[in-house]
Amino acid sequence: MNKKIVIIGGGISGLSTALFLHKGGATVKVLESRKEPGGNLLTTNPSGYQIEHGPNSTMQKPGREEDALGRIMDAVGIRPVVANAQANKRFIVRDQQLAALPSSPLSFLTTKAFSTSAKLRLLWEPFIGKATKEESIAQFVERRLGREFLDYAIDPFVSGVYAGNTHSLSVQAATAKIYALEKNHGSLIRGALFGRQKNISGMPKGRLISFAKGMGELPKAISQTLPSGSILSSTNVIRIKKQKNRWLVYWEGSGGQAGIEEADQVVLATPASQTAKILEETSPEASHLLSTIHYPPILSIAIAYSRKDVTHPLDGFGFLVPRCEKIRTLGSLFSSTLFPGRAPKNEVLLTNFIGGATDLAVETTGDKELASQVAKNISNLLGINGKPNFVHVTRYRESIPQYTLGHLQKLESIEKALSNINGLHLRCNYSGGISVGDCVRNGELLAQKIQQNLI
After folding, report:
1. Which of 39, 111, 117, 357 is an S-S bond match for 165, by CB 3.0 to 4.6 Å?
2. Where are the beta strands (DSSP E) in 307-383?
């Protein structure tokens, strides 16, 4: 196509868009503020432990259309490591103890994770009508399933995965698939049964994956596959400007360097707050709307113990903590169970999370105090008798974008504000899903859209 695309932001959204554009024949230039591209997909190996500073895994979706992650792995020549089969077993905290979540209709009848009254409450769900207005996740779940399922199933999932608050997140925006069950089938149970029938008829299920060298292997492989010189690191974009049919991207680098990149089109693949600053001159309205998207603080705290000091078999993915249990830690992943090579022999590695939208106080609390709090919480729940062999803290002052009530309308307003500005695109996880797989698929879709416009 002999066209140049400048992509601002070298996280997985920006890198995926860049690679798919490159494969389509475009010239791409990625400007990244950090020393290395990859964003929150960062893996390090201090003292023989494999530490994930961001996402610990991702779901590879089935089906030719959805599997952009598979296509990008093929393009860069890497193969995934599939999670241990025990990852299918999940725990929640109930009455200060771990309880396994049911994995089948029979196990649901016998599980101690939910009371008899909560199970009977489900019988009423197919007879509940549809909502007539936008609801929070809490309103939606309590209306359809009851308070106990909100407290012990959905609330810990939302706080653990989204770092969010069920009372402020939009069910349509944050959990679109759950909302679609009501919209398309009039019932969560009928919709789930329909999905189960599709699986029985031969529809493959998704699989939980990482990589031998951790999640950071993916952005490194993409960076190495792009042509030499395609990525400019340690570069802060100051502003962008449209001049006739070309874009000018003004940047500053380390050591007082500065420059201007010219482009036919520009992709802003940066978090909402950074995107807002870059767009201040180009579109004040879009800039303001983007600045209102909230990212709560969160800490990922990796803690290793000698295996003999941990009573629990760690036979699962990990556990999540309902907020009603009054335990500050959000949850824990059994990292050394999930994937091989995460900890030295005869040790276990647990990746724990604290903070999020329900605990903003972590922002003003020190790392050591929070690590001590987490160690105390998980020791009580997992029967840990010894002291940690290793502790590593990763702090994010802005973690996961919150799809709060009105989020979809906000995105529509941003799109409208930018509709008359040709050659400018936004692509980051504040729209279209927060998972790695979602970011890769959305990057592919944007690349296809840009290619169609350039031909």
Report:
1. 357
2. 318-320, 331-333, 347-355
